[in-house]
Amino acid sequence: MSWTFWPASRTTWSPPSPSTRSPIILEPPPLRFDILEEIEKRIPGFPIVLHGASSGVQRYVDMINKFGGKMEDAVGIPEAQLRKAATSAVCKINIDSDGRLAMTGAIRKAFAENPKEFDPRKHLGPARDELKSLIIDKNKNVLGSAGHGKEIFAQ
Predict the structure, then answer these.
(1) According to the model, what pLDDT value does residue 114 have?
(2) How far is CA 42 from CA 5, 35, 38, 101, 122, in A?
(3) Where are the domains positioned within the chain?
């Protein structure tokens, strides 16, 4: 387990190996809820970050493959496991690869459907729309973070 010093909080933290650094893999390891629960018991309120916790959203993998990509068999951490982790001491779940999948799929689709288009804004617009849609869905249905703005900003 690699330990990292987090200067702002003067704490030491380490991901308890509940996920993988490379989330788009053939078979993801299950999240180690036993380790998360033990940390919660031993250090109540200790903030945990899941690194490499993208779920490998299948519709974007399919879109990438349909429009010339080579991401067959790509998967990530199941969203049900991420949802369960979000209700534990996990305070941050990194899902960057899902965003990259969404944008790459939309860009590949735009290139394929409009091969004469050379203005990158025409390709990036649909990519931003897909990214926005993904983030809204993840916040509402996976991370459980949608609708808490008033609680956060009231402090």
Answers:
(1) 94
(2) 19, 11, 6, 37, 52
(3) 4-143
Q: Which helix (H) or strand (E) holds 90?
A: strand 90-93
Say which amino acid occupies 120: P
4-143 CATH fold: TIM Barrel (3.20.20)
Q: Are 131 and 101 in contact (CB under 8 A)?
A: no
Which residue is associated with the tokens 């949802």?
83
Q: What is d(CA 129, CA 102) in angstroms, rounded to the nearest whole number?
A: 9
Could you give the CA distance from residue 76 to residue 23 in angstroms, rounded to a whole number? 5
**How sure is the predictor about 149, in pLDDT bands with cuts at 50, 70 and 90?**
confident
pLDDT given for residue 27 in this prediction: 66
Q: Is 16's pLDDT higher than 80?
A: no
Question: Regarding beta strands 48-50 and 90-93, do their DSSP bridges make them parallel or antiparallel, or are they unpaired?
Answer: parallel
* CA atoms of 85 and 49, how far apart (whole Å): 10
